[in-house]
Amino acid sequence: MPPGSSRLSNLLTQPLRLPRRSVWTSLVAATVLLLAVGATVVSGARRFVQDTRWVGHTHATIEQISRLYARIRDVESAQRGYLLTGHIDYLSQLEVGAPEVEALGRGLIDQVRDNAAQHARAREIATLAVERVAISRQTAALYQEQGLASAQREVASNRGKRVMDHVVELMRAMEAEERRLLAQRETASDASAWRLQWAAALGIGLSLALIGIVFWLMLRENRVRRLAERRAASSSAQLAESVEALRLAGARLHELQRGASMLQSCRTTDEAMDIARQTFTRLFPDLGGGIYLTRASQNLVELRIDWGDAPTDCAQVMSPNDCWAVRRGQPHTVDDSRNGSLCAHLAAGADAAPFAATCVPLVARGETLGLVHLAGSRDTIAAHAELVLAAAEQLSLALSNLQLQETLRVQSIRDPLTGLYNRRYLEESLERELARCARRHQPLAVMMLDLDHFKRFNDTHGHDGGDALLGHVGRLLDALCRGEDIACRYGGEEFILILPEADIEVARTRAEQIRSAISELQILHLRRSLGPVTCSIGVAASPMHADAASALVQAADAALYRAKNAGRNRVEIA
Questions:
Q1: For 364, which of 140, 400, 433, 464 could close a Cys bridge (C-beta 3.0–4.6 Å)?
Q2: 450 and 535 in contact (C-beta within 8 Å)?
């Protein structure tokens, strides 16, 4: 036995008489400290909840801006469709869109009443949005009352464009301000969570120290060392479990917030799926699972990612009716795969060990985007039930935002009638492709195509027939294009094709192929053939005919004019 150990043992076994005041003082101090820690934790929790609500408020404001912008664009598209086709459905869309734009503007104003600067911008945006809708309705009225020429003069005045440009400028400023506020509020939320964790940890640590002192004093005072030690050990174990549970809960909450922030920053569905796999793996390390997404056809659900060692095999593709959660629109949990109503997409063989499973539908704005499923032990599934719902909700919002962004992007660059790119995208792409080909010392060709006698075709077959013809030609051009080619509707019955790295001879051959294909086009509309159609094509190439985008288009246009004068249904080179 080491020297002095016997003396130390004797000291520990001797009764230690300490004043009762020390015990009571320690008890009072512990009580006060616990109350202070409780007050600090409650205050921190309230502050964290408030910060989280502000973050959600900012996300809602950004979404409201996007919805208002999309609805204004829908009204503009309806106006353009009405002027191009004269179809009454576009006029109906215009009339329906007007009150919706006004309602969205009022909603945006209400959304930012707490911020004077944003409130002023919102009021101005709402006023300009109503003005832009009024211009569209006025243009449609001019078309009805005075004909296409009057409506075209109104459009050419650019009054609506100037108003829309101002709206876009204000929306960008407003969204930038909201994103700045979002960054501040997310930082404040993270700081609140950090302070809450440290306050809890520090308070619990100090409380444990004081409780240990109280126990030691009571043990020495009452000579019940063995019984008190067992009780102290039990209490310490419970406290350690509580601390560990708090630590795990805080870590999971932090991981959930981090994953939600990353999901909101994703630009594609594949990015979102990669982030979701990482987040779900860290949140549920003891569970296996996967995420299904609904295809665009809405009739199939496809497994996009999976993780962990799932105790069951999952179907790669399934019908929405194969999952109880998707069918019922709410979470579906099975505690025992042998006895419960297991979803059809989860295979449970006769020899497989029993397991528990849960499926949570991904629902946003009333649309089912897919589902999340997890499988594992019953206790683990039950312990993570609320966390699974929160993670699924964040994923649903992120996927919904990505769908909305993609819809807005397509609407801004695609012509709705033909499915080809619009004139705005053409102007941007031609400048870019010219610069790229110039850097590589490669040619670039431009075709300008015009359908012959389109006005007479419209007069003979009506605007519906003309729309059908434009749609068929759009699909034909898209099918005949190479992967790097860009097919655009220039306006009316005119189309432009950009052929990167194609010289004038290649472009001439391609133009002849397109001309021949259009002349052989069979168009059926309302069970009736609309007759043969021909086209004239003008071709120009860079750097042979021009280096600048506008000059190159003018050269192709001049060649097209010569083709028209030379009898139509032909190809002319600039």
A1: 400
A2: yes
